[in-house]
Amino acid sequence: MYRHTAGAVVGAVALIVALTGCTPAAGGGAEEEELSPLSRYLSAAWGGDLSEEEQIERMEKDNAEREELVAQCMTEEGFEYIPAPNTGSISFASDNVYEPDSQEWVAQYGYGMINYPGGDEAMEPSEEYVDPNADYVSSLSAAEQTAFYEVLYGPPTPEEEMSEDGSYEYDWTTAGCHGWAQHEMEGDDPTTSDEHKPIMDAINDFYMGLATAPELADLNAAWATCMDEGGYPGFAAQGDAQMSISDELNAYYENQTEWIEDDPELAELGEREIELALVDLECREKTDYRDKNTEVMTVLEEQFIADHQAELDAFLAAAEQAAR
Question: Which of 7, 62, 207, 263 lies deepest, with the highest CB count within 10 Å?
C-alpha cells in the first residue's frame, strides 16, 4: 500500500546551504541586508522570513505530522507505534561566532574545521531521550523486532548499492514508513516536485559553477599568485585552499578504527590548517577578494533571476502557499 513509484529527488539541503551561505554575517547568521540577491529573493521559501520561535514551531509541527503518518503506516502494517516527540534540540543563536575575515579568529581556528569556537567547552549533559516504543519493541521476539525496524525504516541497504565512503542514493520507496511519511509530507513541497525540478536543477547548477565562473578568473588568478608567493602553490580558485584541508580531514577520519583523544596527527593537521588559512586571509585582503567576489556574485545572481523570472516566481508562489 505504501510503495509507489519513486519521484525525483532534489538536493534540497545543498541548495539551502548555497542560498543562505553566500555572505555570512560575522555572528554566523545572515541578516536580511547581507543576503545575496537570489538568497534574498527566495528566503521566504526556506522560512527565512520567520522568527526563531516561528521556525521552531514549524519544525515541531512538521515532526508531529510526520510521526502521526508513521504511526498510521505502522498500524496498517500490523505493528503498534506511538508517535515520537522531536528528539533534537534546536538553537539558532550562539555566542560562538564564525569570523573567517578576522585575523585574530583565523589565527586561533583557521577555517574552523578542526578547532572551532566552543569546541573545547565541556559538553552539557542533555536530557536522556526515552523512546515511547521501547517497551513494545522489547516485548517482541527477535524476529519480530527485525521486522518492526524494517517496516519502520526499510531493509538494510545492500552492500553493492553503497559507494566506497558508505553513502548511497536515498529512495523513499525502500525507506519504510519513515520514508513514506516524509514523501507524503513533501507531496506539496515545491523543492521536491517534478513541476519545479527544472528550476531547482538550474539553481544547483548555477551555484556549483560559480567557483569557476569566467567572471572570477582574474580575481582567482591574482589570489592564486599571492598564495604561490606565500608558499602555497597549486590552487586555482580561492575555495580550493579550504577544500584541501577538508579532503585531508575526511581522509583522516576514514582511516580511523577507533577514537584517539588528543591525537597528535589531528593536532598537526589543525596547525597546518591555521597556517594555510592565515596566508589565504592575507591574500584575500591583498586582492580585496571578498568585495570583488560579492560584486561579481551580485551581477551573476541578478542575471540569473532575470533569465528565470517566471520559473522563480512560480516556485516562490508555490513555496509560500505550501508554508501556509
Answer: 207
